Amino acid sequence: YSAMSTMQQTDVLIIGAGPSGSSAAALLRQKGYQVTVIEKQFFPRFSIGESLLPQCMVFLEEAGLLETVRAHAGEYAFQFKNGAAFLRGTQRSFYDFTQKFSEGPGTTWQVRRANFDQLLAQQAEKMGADIRFGHEVLAVDVASTQPILTVKGEQGDSYQIQGKFLLDASGFGRILPKFLDLESPSDFPVRRAVFTHIEDGLLNDPEFDREKILITVHEKDYRAWYWLIPFADGRSSFGIVAEQDFFEKYGYDGSADYDLEALQKRILADDASLSHVLRHAKHDTPVRTLVGYSADVKHLASENYALLGNAGEFLDPVFSSGVTIALKSSSLAVPLVEQVLQGQAIDWMEQYETPLRKGIQVFRAYVESWYSGEFQDVVFSTHQDEKIRRMIASLLAGYAWDESNPIHRNAKQRLSTLAEYCREEQTQTTSERVADR
Ligand code: FAD
After folding, report:
1. Which residue minimizes the CA distance to atom 31 of ligand 1?
2. 207: CA distance to ligand 1 center in Å?
3. How far apart are CA 437 and CA 434, in angstroms?
4. Atom of ligand 1 nearest to the CA of 135
5. How high is the pLDDT of residue 425?
6. Mean pLDDT in residue range 174-191
């Protein structure tokens, strides 16, 4: 690449080649625009977020990225997925995504993101996107009509590149929120995830359904939960999510050299039901942790830039909404970017931010209701109306933007009412379980 003095030019600049960056690049290439993606890391690289939702399939297909995932699903042991299962002590429940209210695909995969993200990026490259792996964005200038990035190249050299529009798909890198002071605190409490990959010992267990993510509510503290996301080869992603005080009770002080594997095992041992499910598991991979990942921004776009996926708002891992929101954001933003490139004026608030946030708000209502315990009681209720089950299955399958789904309207209030009804029907509720402790 040329030296600092000569400014490179492209139509659209994208920071980050995760799902939001690669899908935006692919969509723009379909329309014939020049796209340059600056990606700090070399792929394949680890990323958390392995449970996809069926709604993703619609966006992958639209971007011309579905076929490559399907073609390599076997090679990378992507796990066919058709629902979500829940466990709380002796209570079990599951939602089948094919039995849902909304139209659209009812199945998807659970994926190792290292492979999945690489497949999407490779396909975008095949479509003509210039993805520069090992290049890091150091500075951003959006003051002139055409944004400029200062980039450190693979050899440590710096250069500048200018585009007619800038998309920030930098995920937790949060480049524009940081450089343009757009950060706005999330209103969720600070939570931590402690996670790894395990040999799950469940490959030949007829009682275990690999085709569903398993979400377990901690038996002794309903604010904490575990994910088990099986892949097709006998391995699973396994994680624990809770507020910091929960981990402190197990002796974790947040220090860098803490034995996270021992911590995970202690917490697992405290849940008899999940310990039984994982009785043959082998813990063989270093355990990682992330804290304070929920984030928000003051606004998601301006005349010459927009934030995609996690670079904008990130809620919580519990309903696996991250990649779905990332792909949805690209699907909404790219047609608007095209209009900008054609010289049209766009009301980014009305045409991008408001519609994107509408679905995010629906997810948010479920996340809040989950952590209050209300939605947990709905999930484990044995008296659920079939129609309502389908409406809930729709949300769990990622169809948060389907405005025809009645429970999406005023979701928070509706979930409260639903929980109340389920609790009346049920002998023991979360609040009573807490009182029992
Ligand atoms: P990312 O996938 O994060 O990609 C951003 C890219 O930008 C990275 O490759 C990074 O290297 C690059 N980048 C960053 N800074 C720079 C820079 N300065 N210069 C150049 N490149 C840069 N989502 C799900 O759908 N399902 C799940 O089960 C799920 N589980 C989760 C569990 C936890 C604990 C957490 C925290 C999140 C989870 N998520 C899940 C969310 C999911 O990880 C993200 O939402 C998703 O990866 C967002 O995609 P993205 O494209 O916006 O960003």
Report:
1. 49
2. 33
3. 5
4. 20
5. 78
6. 95
Question: Which pLDDT band holds residue 172 (cuts at 50, 70, 90)?
Answer: very high
Residues 272-304 pLDDT 10s: 999 999 999 999 999 999 999 999 999 999 999
Tell me how far the alpha carbon of residue 105 lies from the centroid of ligand 1, in angstroms. 24
Residues within 6 Å of ligand 1 by CB: 15-21, 38-41, 47-52, 136-137, 169-173, 175, 193, 290, 293, 308-311, 314, 317, 320, 322-324, 326
Instruction: Tell me which residue has its CA closest to atom 2 in ligand 1.
Output: 18
Q: Token pair 């991008």 is at which residue?
A: 352
Q: What is the pLDDT of residue 427?
A: 59
215-239 pLDDT, tens per residue?
999 999 999 999 999 999 999 999 9
**Ligand 1 center–CA 327 separation, angstroms:** 12
* Residue whose CA lies nearest to ligand 1 atom number 30: 49
Does the pTM of the predicted model rise above 0.85?
A: yes
Q: Which of 86-90, 229-233, 355-359, 380-384 has the lowest mean pLDDT?
A: 380-384
Q: Please choose from 14, 36, 38, 39 the residue to mutate so as to test ligand 1's pocket, defined by most ligand atoms within 8 A of CB.
A: 39
User: Tens digits of per-residue pLDDT, 96-152?
Assistant: 999 999 999 999 999 999 999 999 999 999 999 999 999 999 999 999 999 999 999
Mean pLDDT score, 257-281: 97
Quote the CA–CA distance of 370 and 419 in Å, as a whole number: 11
Q: Ligand 1 pocket check: which of 22, 23, 47, 119 to mutate, most ligand atoms within 8 Å of Cβ?
A: 47
Q: What distance in angstroms lies between residue 171's CA and the mean position of ligand 1's atoms? A: 5
Measured from the CA of 16, which atom of ligand 1 is nearest?
7
Q: Looking at ligand 1, which residue's alpha carbon is closest to its atom 6?
A: 16
Alpha-carbon radius of gyration of the chain: 22
Reply yes or no: is the peptide bond before residue 44 cis, omega within 30 of 0. Answer: yes
Q: Which of 87, 101, 92, 83 is nearest to 389 (CA)?
A: 101
